[in-house]
Amino acid sequence: MIRRLLLCALLVVPSFAHAQHDNVEWGYEASAQEQARADAYRSHALRVADGLADTGGSRELVLAAIQRRSALTMIRDGDAPSFRVPPDAEAGAWMRAAAARAGDDVIANQLLVGAARGEDSAIRRDAARRWQAAEPDNLMPLLYLDLPTDELLVQARRSIHVETHMYDGVRWMVSALLRHPPTPMERAAIADGGPYVAEEAAAISAMGIWLAFVGPNLLPLRQACGDAELRVVPARAADCRHVATLLADRSGSAMEQGIGLLMLRELAGSQAEREAIDVRRKRRDWQMQRWGALAAQQPRDGAEQFVRLLADPAIRTEQQLVERVLQEAGVSLEPPAGWTPPGR
């Protein structure tokens, strides 16, 4: 079930992100069953968008724009040719209204930062500035200001933590989506004969939106702090180490922690330092691998457990959620002696 719902989400979210970010043609050949689910998902998303927009709230307006644009970029039929997605006037109006009302609402500004791409670049930068003003010691909003690398690294000196508020945003989106359930016909098509659990469907959609839109692109920062760049601009080294340490030590996201540890290893000045970092990377890899394996053993790939843990306000970060999953299964947080991450 969770894989089927994820397929519907993947037919929506990445297509919009790709079209908005790159503004290029794309195409996909869907099966008849996939197309039926996509049609149901599209009709539901358009109705959700209208319902959210009617509330007039900033968060609701930007989520409405995401839902509408996503629905309009979905595959029209099983063998549709590639096509270019034109800007949608109504979604654009919702984005502008959301930006005007966002104020210092961090979640609203994060959603705007993620959704405002291409023709909405000014909205994106303004939302990032508002987010930065609300959290001046947070590294994350700096990554969306489109700053030159050296200016970004200098401004990052005052950052003391990395906070995406991912689960805060996902929890809010879940609550918003649950207020607009699918019709019985839509639900049957989306479920495709399997069980349809509203909370699970909303959580999967919300996570898909967050990961596709709001997750930061850290590749340019990592490249700027790589060996080749540092040989050209060695003065960056201290600032790069500060940013890498924040990602590794002060982020609750496994992806950001992993990139931070990789950067720290590349910046390490001794074999002992590299070996210490390798121990941390191995622990992280073990936990992520076991989390995936445990989820795969559960019905619907662990969707019920994810929804239950997401509802626990004590769990604020991905790392906390992973540790809870392992603890509930009686799995050690430390890798066994001799364990080696696959492919390393």
TrEMBL record:
It comes from the Bacteria. It comes from Luteimonas marina. Residues 1-19 form the signal peptide. The keyword Signal applies. Keywords: Signal. This is Secreted protein.
